[in-house]
C-alpha cells in the first residue's frame, strides 16, 4: 500500500464498530480526535439494495452510485448528536475540495426511523447540510435488508411513549466506497472537516488513477 493511502489513519479499529444509541445516553464519543478511518480488509463492494428517495422515486443504490466516491450512512433525523455531527463535518469537508470532486461525490443518508423520517422530513433535514445529499427511506423490511446488505446491525427503535419522542440505536459509522470499489472504508465519529476534505480527495484519486 502506498504512503498516500497509509496517511489515512487506521487508529481505534473498535471505534469503527460503534453502535450509537442517539439520545439514549450512549452517544458520547463526540470529541473530535485524530481517528480517521479503517479500511475493510476484504474490500467488499458497495451493497445492492433499493429504497425510495426524497422525491418518491425508487433508488437502486448500487446502480445509482456506481463510478462515484460514495459515503453511506444509516441514521435518523431526530438524532441529537451523532448524525448531525457526521453530516456537518462531511458537508464542511466537501466545501474544501475542488468543485469537480464535490460534484462527483455521492453522500447518502438512509433514514432508519420511517414513522418520523418521511421523504419530506429527510429532505428538510439534509438541506440544512447540503442540498446535494441524497436521502433514502423505505419500509421496515426494506431498511433491514439494506442494513444487512451493508454489513451493519439493523437499527432498533425504542417504544414510543406516546409523544413521538424516542431514541433509535443504529450503526454509528460512515461507509466509504471508492469510485470503482477498489477499496471500502469505515469512518467513525470524530473525523474533522479538514480530514474529510483530504479523505474525499484521496479516495476519489484511487478510482481515477488505478485500473
What does the model show?
With 211 residues, the chain is an alpha+beta fold. It has a single domain (3-27, 34-209), classed as Glutaredoxin (3-Layer(aba) Sandwich), CATH 3.40.30. Helices cover 31% and strands 20% of the residues. The chain has helices at residues 3-6, 61-65, 82-94, 99-104, 119-127, 140-150, 193-209, and strands at 19-22, 38-39, 50-53, 58-60, 70-75, 106-111, 134-137, 156-157, 168-171, 174-177, 184-187. The strands form 2 sheets. It has an 8-stranded mixed sheet. Strands 1-9-8 form a 3-stranded antiparallel sheet, with no helix packed on it. Strand 3 (50-53) and strand 4 form a beta hairpin. Helix 3 crosses helix 7 (193-209). The longest helix is centred in the last third of the chain and has 17 residues, at 193-209. The radius of gyration is 16 Å and the shape is globular.
Descriptive terms for the model:
211 residues; alpha+beta; Glutaredoxin; eight-stranded mixed sheet; three-stranded antiparallel sheet; 7 helices; 31% helix; 20% strand; globular; disordered N terminus
**Strand line-up across the major sheet:** 2-11-10-5-6-7-3-4
Distance N to C terminus: 15 Å
Total number of beta strands: 11
Q: Class in CATH? A: Alpha Beta
Largest sheet: 8 strands, mixed
Which structural class do the helices and strands define?
alpha+beta
Rounded mean pLDDT score: 82
What share of residues is helical? Answer: 25-40%
Number of helices: 7
Amino acid at each position: 500500500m502506498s504512503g498516500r493511502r497509509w496517511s489515512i489513519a487506521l487508529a481505534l479499529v473498535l471505534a469503527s464498530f460503534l453502535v450509537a444509541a442517539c439520545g439514549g445516553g450512549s452517544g458520547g464519543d463526540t470529541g473530535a480526535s485524530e481517528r480517521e478511518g479503517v479500511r475493510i480488509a476484504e474490500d467488499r463492494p458497495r451493497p445492492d439494495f433499493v429504497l425510495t428517495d426524497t422525491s418518491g422515486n425508487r433508488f437502486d443504490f448500487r446502480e445509482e452510485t456506481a463510478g462515484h466516491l460514495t459515503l453511506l450512512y444509516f441514521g435518523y433525523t431526530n438524532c441529537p448528536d451523532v448524525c448531525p455531527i457526521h453530516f456537518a463535518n462531511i458537508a464542511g469537508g466537501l466545501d474544501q475540495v475542488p468543485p469537480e470532486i464535490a460534484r462527483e461525490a455521492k453522500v447518502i443518508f438512509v433514514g432508519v426511523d420511517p414513522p418520523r423520517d418521511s421523504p419530506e422530513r429527510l429532505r428538510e433535514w439534509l438541506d440544512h447540510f447540503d442540498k446535494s445529499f441524497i436521502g433514502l427511506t423505505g419500509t421496515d423490511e426494506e431498511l433491514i435488508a439494506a442494513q444487512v446488505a451493508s454489513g451493519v446491525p439493523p437499527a432498533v427503535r425504542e417504544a414510543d411513549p406516546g409523544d413521538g419522542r424516542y431514541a433509535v440505536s443504529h450503526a454509528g459509522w460512515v461507509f466509504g466506497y471508492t469510485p470503482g470499489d477498489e477499496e471500502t472504508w469505515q469512518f467513525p465519529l470524530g473525523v474533522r472537516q479538514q480530514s474529510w476534505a483530504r479523505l474525499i480527495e484521496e479516495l476519489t484519486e484511487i478510482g481515477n488513477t488505478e485500473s
